[in-house]
Amino acid sequence: MGKKIVIIGGVAAGPKSACRVKRLMPDAEVTIIDQDNLISYGGCGIPYYVSGDVSDEKELRNTSFHMTRDEAFFLKAKGVTAKTNTRALSIDRKEKLVLVEDITSGTQESIPYDNLVITTGARPNVLPIPGADLDGVFTISDLHKAIAIKERIAKGEVSRVVVIGGGAIGIEMAEAFTDLWGIETTILEFMPQIMPRLVDWDFAKMLETHLQESGVTVFTGEAASAIEGKDGKVCRVVTPKRTLEADLVVMAVGVRARSELAQAAGLLVSPMGNIVVNERLQTSDPNIYAAGDCIEVKNIITGKGSIAPMGSLANREGRIVGDNLAGIPTKYKGWIGSFIMKAFEHSIAATGLSLDAALAEGFAAAAVTTAQSDRAHFFPTQAVIPLRIIFDTKTRKVLGCQGFGPMSDAVLARIDAAAAIIGQGGTIDDLSQLEMAYAPPFATALDALNATANVADNLAAGRLRYVSTREFLNWMDDFASQPDWVALDLRHSNEAGSFVEKYTKEKWLSVPYIEIRDRYQELPKDKTMLIICDAGTRSSEIQIVLDHFGLTNNLVLGGGFNLIRRMGVAWWPN
User: Fold this and answer.
1) Are 452 and 368 spatial neighbours (Cβ–Cβ below 8 Å)?
2) Rhodanese domain location, by residue (predicted)?
């Protein structure tokens, strides 16, 4: 036999490393160790198993050709030995041994290695609040928890669920409970918005509105202070503002690396507990590699290290480990944080930094927002997708991109394209000129992403002045805050009429786009006009027209009312 390779952890990065190295080194003796009896499953599919979209948990463990990835599969199909129900107790780096214990029998043995790979993943955080250990309080840590949740639902034991945490997992689980099972579901998020740090507040607000419309109650800026039970079972969640009855609680408040084994072995671990690796994913011991949710990954944009718990990254890292084990020098560049998430009939996605995150990192960041058609406007299935680009005004580098739209590939395509540009350190000029595939059923001739980059170019060059969505909404809630502002509505008079009637002609001016050049002299010179249309495109054009006529007292509402109407504002006409 060839090189002895031992892999601790059998969910994503570990199996990928094992299979890759066996393809490159067929004579290698590869052993996977995992304390669970279920291995190599798609953890990101757990919410869809709970919802019923995936009917059987085995589908999460099956290959695309319908073979279950278990011990027999790995041995017969891949030539890899998988030891399940086996816990790794310690690593002897000097002797190159891993001490393991059979969980069922208690028998211990030492397994020798030439190279060791640590893919121990991450464990979910548990809030330090009373009642966190009650029966019926779950974290989404493994497939067993998902099976237990679904069994309770199927038995009719669950009618009310509280999800603590408004991140991706929390929202996906809330949808799972509500969509198929019709369970009364509430999300609690202690930050001021859902999806904190991942998307900007207005994109989060569009998502929140859609969740509310789909039957999920959402409370932001509110933390769970206690979980109460009866006879040892959960029955309610208490916050400083309210009490929520619950038959089941899901705690989805982030994860932390399982790095105790590495720490005990003397390997370098970051202050946050993530295993430190180099570009080849070697730890501080060159004979030991690490990959997946347990490692510290460099953010390509900021250069800083952090945990990056994503199945897509774990599989990519596993392949890189396999390459390096086989002597193929392969480097891991890092990540930029790309994701997409389904929420009922909509999707939300982002890559790179949000505007708040970019500003916090010290970038001279700005953002532009558009509401573009995802395909030719004349095509029957056309839909509007709000897009945002975050960029550095000094270097013009693209720092991030966000999208919101219907459950299709439209948002995904733009985010993936933006991610490719960001990952290469590209600029808004690169994004503006990026060649995108075009046919009316799929895109517009000038793609939505190209168009958004063009808006960013206009802002960077000083050809665009805008009012932010937050500033506009604050003004709508309190006109006295900006008494010198008035709205200039470019939409058809039939669309603008209800606003004129409600807010008076002094505050709401209706001049259709087609009439501006003939009627510009009617516009006030002593007021700042907030130019409004559906998408912001006509507004930007009219800003230039008004500037030409000497009426420079104007600001454009980026994204227009296509963005605003998705945010569930109280003043929007029924």
Assistant:
1) yes
2) 515-572
> Residue 1 has what pLDDT?
65
- In this structure, what are the phi and psi dihedrals at residue 362, rounded to the nearest 5 degrees? 95, 10
Cβ of 292: how many Cβ atoms within 10 Å?
33
Structural domain harbouring 198: 137-253
Residue 44 designated active-site:
yes
Q: Are residues 351 and 437 in the same domain?
A: yes
Catalytic residue (choose from 19, 44, 294, 401): 44
> pLDDT averaged over consecutive 10-residue blocks of the chain (574 residues)?
93 96 97 94 87 86 87 94 97 98 97 98 96 96 90 94 97 93 96 96 97 97 97 97 98 96 98 97 98 97 94 96 97 96 96 97 97 92 95 98 95 97 98 96 95 96 94 93 95 93 92 96 95 94 96 95 92 79
* Residue 235 contacts residue 134 (beta carbons within 8 Å): no
**305 close to 278: Cβ distance less than 8 angstroms:** no
- Alpha-carbon dihedral angle through residues 61, 62, 68, 69, given to the nearest 10 degrees: -60
Element counts in the chain: helices (H) and strands (E): 17, 30
Strands 216-220 and 184-189: parallel
The model carries a pTM of 0.94
Question: In this structure, is residue 333 part of a structural domain?
Answer: no
Shared domain check, 202 and 144: yes
Domains: count for the chain: 4
Residues 347 and 439 in one domain: yes
CATH classification of the domain holding 444: 3.50.50.60
My answer on whether 245 and 260 are in the same domain is no
In angstroms and rounded to an integer, the radius of gyration of the C-alpha atoms of the chain is 27
Burial annotation 520-529 (CB, 10 A radius, 16+ → b, else e):
beebeeebbb
